[in-house]
Design brief:
The complex is a heterodimer.
Chain A (H helix, E strand, L loop, with lengths): L3 H28 L7 H12 L2 H34 L1 H14 L8 H8 L3 H25 L3 H9 L4 H38 L5 H10 L3 H29 L15
Helix pairs in contact in A: 2-10, 3-4, 3-6, 3-8, 3-9, 5-6, 6-8, 7-8, 8-9, 8-10, 9-10
Chain B lengths: L4 H10 L6 E13 L5 E13 L3 E5 L6 H9 L6 E6 L2 E2 L7 E5 L10 H11 L4 H14 L15 H13 L5 E5 L7 H18 L2 E6 L2 H7 L2 E6 L4 E7 L8 H6 L1 H16 L8
Parallel strand pairs in B: 3-8, 3-9, 6-7, 7-8
Antiparallel strand pairs in B: 1-2, 1-4, 4-5, 9-10
Helix pairs in contact in B: 3-4, 3-5, 4-5, 7-9
The chains are: A mainly alpha, B alpha/beta.
Chain lengths: 261, 279
């Protein structure tokens, strides 16, 4: 049986979305600006975008680059971050580099990267890769640093050598923190994906969005914003489910110790 | 590491040791760098021999380096001077012949109780089914039957320490290195675990090196108590505890010999001007 309160709790996100759309609708009707279509007009434009074969090819290209950039970044960043967390030498080498790269908006590197690698897949994937890498490295680094030394000693006493300890103790122990970084990275992947396509227009979801803007198809622009936003929410929700499953052992709902000595 | 093997080797030969020494600590000193960059002498010229099957406690106030001494035997810390040997072989690093149990439990939180206990045997190459059967038996022995599939996070401190003990016993170390294992537990839980440890130990009599700052705990459990003093950590005195085994807590508390042991040791610390053991 669902009580009134839990039903309300579940409906809350949808109510919030509906509220936002209603506000949008009213604001648009009041302002009567050509470049600000109503929420209904934007929503009505969505099916035609999703039904268009050309648009779907663009989306597929975007998602492929996003998946490649994200995947490569995770594969490279986790081991690097873990090694930085466990070795002062590795950390002192990479930390200054990361400190320099960290505050630079990755999209700002796009012109240079385009100059070197062209406007194709490689340049865009590289920007996504850079965007995702930093949070994943940072959180892997923090996670590895926080691993209790006695846990590693326990492993060493069982006969695990240093590389085995990194893979079989540091990695799982740091996993909750690593996945927090991956979650941030996933959203950043989506953002850098769109911005890279905005700068190097050739294909992709960002390309559709900015082409529509150039042509004054404002309902398409806003429809694309809704679609990209929905993609972000969808990816995040799926990732959160996977994350919660993987680190069930560290979740706070288990934090009720039994009263038995 | 300024190990000086020549000197300690000479010393070892000069003093005849009992044949069945499991662990020998030879003129070990440990110097730490403080955060202000100064040298701090944590252990000063410690020599100690522990025979096979003995339950030896290292007793001292906090900051006397007693845990450091245990870590040196474990191979987790390299001594600045001197050396430690196990069965005549120099200790160069950690190994499954010496099993640590830490105050912080140090369980693997992503593994269930069973997974934690099986970890050592699996690492040693024991077959899965065999490791599982042994581990289940050990979990039952430490009184946690029915909790095999629980995660450490779901357990109380006392239960966690039981798992940690089972996990260490599972890979059959010859020496147990216990670093204030019951220090983080409440008094009631602590007593129960002391009793259970003693009854487990009395079955197979592994060599135990047990670090504590509780006089009662040291006397209750040990064959010998090594009293240490602080700054720098030195051995003050080694006291044999000639109380009969198997020991029962309720009987022992009424035994005048036990009471005298406890009072004598406490007096010795007081006379030494130590600011109390429980500081």
């Amino acid at each position: 049986m669902i009580s009134g309160e839990t039903a309300l709790k579940r409906a809350a996100p949808f109510l919030a979305c509906l509220g936002l759309l209603a506000l949008w609708q009213v604001a648009s009707l009041v302002l009567k600006n050509d470049s600000f279509p109503t929420a209904l007009e934007a929503l009505r434009a969505i099916p035609s975008i999703l039904g268009d074969k050309e648009a779907l090819i663009n989306f597929a290209a975007s998602l492929r680059r996003m998946a490649t950039g994200f995947g490569l970044a995770v594969v490279v960043s986790i081991p690097l971050g873990l090694m930085m967390g466990r070795s002062r030498l590795v950390a002192s080498f990479f930390n200054p580099l990361l400190m320099v790269i960290y505050p630079v908006p990755k999209a700002a590197l796009m012109p240079i990267i385009m100059l070197w690698l062209g406007v194709g897949d490689i340049a865009k994937t590289l920007v996504i890769f850079l965007g995702v890498s930093l949070p994943v490295i940072y959180h892997s680094f923090q996670g590895a640093k926080a691993v209790e030394e006695k846990m590693l000693w326990s492993g060493a006493a069982m006969g695990l050598l240093a590389p085995q300890r990194l893979i079989r103790i540091v990695f799982p122990a740091a996993l909750p923190e690593i996945l927090t970084g991956c979650r941030t990275g996933l959203v950043l992947a989506l953002i850098t994906m769109i911005t890279s396509e905005m700068i190097a227009r050739q294909s992709g979801a960002g390309n559709i969005l900015f082409n529509a803007l150039d042509m004054g198809q404002y309902d398409t622009v806003f429809a694309m914003i809704i679609i990209v936003g929905a993609m972000g929410i969808g990816f995040d929700a799926v990732f959160e489910r996977i994350r919660a499953r993987l680190v069930r052992w560290s979740e706070p709902q288990f934090d009720i110790p039994l009263s038995f000595s | 590491m300024n190990v000086m093997p020549s000197r300690s080797d000479l010393q070892a030969q000069a003093s005849p040791k009992p044949a069945a020494a499991m662990i020998e600590i030879d003129h070990v000193s440990q110097v730490f760098q403080t955060s202000s960059g100064q040298d701090h002498l944590a252990l000063s010229d410690i020599s100690l021999s522990i025979e096979d099957g003995a339950f030896v406690s290292i007793l001292g106030p906090s900051g006397c380096g007693k845990s450091t001494l245990l870590y040196i035997v474990g191979g987790f810390v390299q001594p600045t001077r001197g050396s430690a040997r196990m069965k005549g072989k120099a200790i160069a690093g950690p190994g499954p012949d010496r099993g640590p149990v830490f105050q912080e439990f140090a369980l693997f939180p992503w593994k269930s109780v069973l997974g934690n206990v099986m970890y050592g045997p699996r690492q040693q190459g024991v077959k899965h089914s065999e490791a599982e059967a042994q581990s289940r038996a050990l979990i039952e022995m430490v009184g946690l039957k029915g909790f095999e599939d629980f995660y450490p996070k779901e357990l109380s401190g006392g239960m966690k320490q039981r798992v940690a003990l089972a996990r260490t016993l599972a890979y059959h170390p010859e020496v147990l290195l216990m670093d204030e294992p019951f220090g983080a537990l409440d008094a009631h839980t602590r007593t129960r675990l002391q009793n259970d440890l003693l009854s487990i130990w009395e079955r197979d009599r592994k060599t135990v090196l047990f670090v504590t700052h509780s006089v009662e705990e040291a006397v209750f459990l040990s064959d010998r108590v090594v009293m240490m003093s602080r700054s720098p950590g030195r051995i003050r005195q080694i006291i044999d505890i000639d109380l009969p085994r198997p020991r029962r807590r309720t009987e022992l508390l009424l035994d005048p010999r036990y009471q005298k042991c406890v009072v004598d040791i406490e007096r010795m610390f007081d006379d030494g001007g130590e600011a109390g053991l429980r500081s």
